[in-house]
Amino acid sequence: MSDSSSTTTVERKDADHRYEILVDGRRAGLTAYRDLNRQRVFFHTETDEAFAGQGLASQLVQQALDDVRASGMRIVPVCPYVAKFLKRHDEFADITDRVTPDVLRWLRAQLG
Ligand SMILES: CC(C)(COP(=O)(O)OP(=O)(O)OC[C@H]1O[C@@H](n2cnc3c(N)ncnc32)[C@H](O)[C@@H]1OP(=O)(O)O)[C@@H](O)C(=O)NCCC(=O)NCCS
């Protein structure tokens, strides 16, 4: 569990192709991606059960998408959670691309 005194941080782990959210230094969730040129393709988000339902995935995805913008890249929301988040946050519409069959084929090949 996290509470109001917990410290929450988000880190991008380039080597692991993901952003992680840490609560008091403990990993509580992640959102995973692969980069296709300038597109960051998000394909999976998860929160550890002990931390579920506290808005952590929302904080994580918000900061991850802010980082995509800061990096001058674009978002492709294959992950249903990221897609749902974007429906509620139209401030990212200008840097969001559609999920296409080509992207899905490329992603499947990337993930083996
Ligand atoms: C989906 C998941 C990451 C949400 O984590 P969380 O930290 O509890 O999320 P938050 O508290 O920020 O947000 C909860 C919201 O996520 C929504 N949600 C739960 N599962 C979802 C899913 N599979 N796809 C989209 N949205 C989902 C809930 O409906 C809730 O929406 P609400 O705000 O309208 O009530 C977490 O439940 C999880 O790890 N699930 C298993 C893996 C998974 O299905 N990942 C999503 C697809 S890759």
TrEMBL record:
Domain (N-acetyltransferase) ranges: 11-97
Annotated coiled-coil segments of the chain: none
Pfam families referenced in this protein's UniProt entry, alphabetically: Acetyltransf_CG (PF14542)
SUPFAM superfamilies: Acyl-CoA N-acyltransferases (Nat)
Protein name in the entry: N-acetyltransferase
Organism of this sequence: Streptomyces variabilis
